Amino acid sequence: MIWEWEWEWERKRIGKKERDALHASQKGRCMYCGFRSKEKSRFEVDHKTPVARNGSNRFSNYQLLCGPCNKRKGKMTDGEFRCKYKLTPARQAKGPPSRRILESHFDGITKTTAKKRAKKRRSEDDWWGF
Ligand SMILES: [Zn+2]
After folding, report:
1. Residue 128 clears pLDDT 60, i.e. is over it
2. CATH of the domain spanning 4-118
3. Please, which residues have CB less than 5 A from ligand 1, an ion?
4. How far does the centroid of ligand 1 lie from the alpha carbon of residue 17, in Å?
5. Which of the residues 30, 42, 81, 121 could staple to 37 if both were Cys, CB 3.0 to 4.6 A apart?
């Protein structure tokens, strides 16, 4: 699903061509979790470095993310997101993960971070690493 404002934004900034090119270069997968779909409308175009944080509007700063990943990323940069969610660093990744990273992985970290913030826990939660 595409929010109306986003659609509006995309029409202005990112043409169908760019979106198609991203979809092809990422093999139809979300850059972070590996969610795969042939329907381009299932993905959202993200700025690796948000424009609000001086990210460029150049093609190299774009990537396709699934809705949940894009929402989670918010105003984080690509580097911050990968670090927080323990994903392969961009310079090693070279593309989306070939295996799907489950929603529970992301949720586990989101929750852990929230908990840590609430009360500074000494021990790390036992979320499964990979
Ligand atoms: Zn995703």
Report:
1. no
2. 1.10.30.50
3. 30, 32-33, 35, 66, 69
4. 21
5. 42
CA of 73 from ligand 1 middle (Å) equals 10
Written as one letter, the residue type at 102 is L
CA 64 – ligand 1 centroid, Å:
9
Buried b / exposed e across 44-55, counting CB within 10 Å, b at 16+? bbbbbbbeeeeb
Q: Ligand 1: distance of its center to the CA of 56 in Å?
A: 22
User: What angle is formed at CA 25 by the lines to CA 20 and CA 31, rounded to 5 degrees?
Assistant: 100
- What is the whole-number distance in angstroms between the Cα of residue 122 and the centre of ligand 1? 30
43 CA to middle of ligand 1, Å? Answer: 8
| Apex 53 CA angle, 25 and 108, nearest 5 | 70
Q: How high is the mean pLDDT of the chain? A: 86
The tens digit of pLDDT for each residue in 14-34 reads 788 889 999 999 999 999 999
Rg (CA), the chain: 15
- pLDDT of 49-73, one tens digit each? 999 999 998 899 999 999 999 999 9
Instruction: Give the tokens for residue 27.
Output: 């093999």
Domain ranges within the chain, ordered by starting residue: 4-118
